[in-house]
């Protein structure tokens, strides 16, 4: 994660701390990572283009710094951590099982990449009938225009888009 994403990480940490302080919110951290040797990624270079780049560059290997959560939003003891092997937070994970087991029907999303992880997660969460909130200033993308269009047009069909400050204020109600 590059420095361009630091403002979103800073805002996500504010939202996370407010949720922790509320005390009755299930906090789930989802992180993408792969096993050494990348058995989850095909050797066929025509498949999984984005993951081919990860594999070629030796990124996101479990147990390495490159697969760790940013320290400002890292899980604390008692918080759930889910590992994903593909783009969306539901794909290849037990996230849906965890949420349903805890009677969760509302999710709040922050993170990167807006046009990848957040988009895929919003789409699948909507198909699973979750009520979705996207934290506008706690998500980021390499492409400013794609980021803007997703937040201002696309996500509004399936989610509520609010700022971190609006989210934090809603926790006080």
Précis, in short:
The protein is of the alpha/beta class and 173 residues long. The protein has helices at 6-22, 49-57, 95-101, 114-127, 144-154, 164-171; strands at residues 28-32, 80-84, 106-112, 131-140, 160-162. It starts with 5 loop residues before the first helix and ends with a helix.
Walk me through what this model shows.
It is a single chain. This protein is of the alpha/beta class and 173 residues long. It has one domain: Rossmann fold, CATH 3.40.50.850. The chain has helices at 6-22, 49-57, 95-101, 114-127, 144-154, 164-171; strands at residues 28-32, 80-84, 106-112, 131-140, 160-162. The strands form 2 sheets. Strands 3-4-5 form a 3-stranded parallel sheet. A two-stranded parallel ribbon has the order 1-2. It is globular and about 50 Å long.
